[in-house]
């Protein structure tokens, strides 16, 4: 899927990108603050929020930019849910590239399972710091290899492992 974004709806490279993507058979979405714009017409799906004129004329970063950011937040959140990266209301595919994210992983595992900090740390350590695997380990009482296999068998979706096992 290709998403083209242009506040005015007439940015040439966005239109060309959408047209090219469609010629390749890609699904396309156009986000523009002008209904009926060239971007909206170039895409299969048009998302065109009505924002009214900008407070500062010509400053599309204000109303239009804010509306488009909200749309992108909604789309990306939906995609994260549909791809199994969310369990309940927790982002469970956090990769710990620093100490802050390591602490976040511990909190996520604790919140998802009701375990102690020590249990979360031990599970994360046993599975190479893979949040989803640690959660399945604790909720299903499995070792890291078994939990990883179950996740793989269910496309990475924790909920499916819990409901179908």
Automatic annotation (TrEMBL):
The keyword Lyase applies. It holds the Pfam family SIS. Its EC number is 4.2.1.126. Residues 1-85 form the SIS domain. GO terms for biological process: amino sugar catabolic process; peptidoglycan turnover. It comes from the Bacteria. InterPro entries: Glucokinase_regulatory_CS (IPR005486), MURQ/GCKR (IPR040190), SIS_dom (IPR001347), SIS_dom_sf (IPR046348). This is N-acetylmuramic acid-6-phosphate etherase. GO terms for molecular function: carbohydrate derivative binding; carbon-oxygen lyase activity; ether hydrolase activity. Keywords: Carbohydrate metabolism, Lyase. Signal peptide: none annotated.
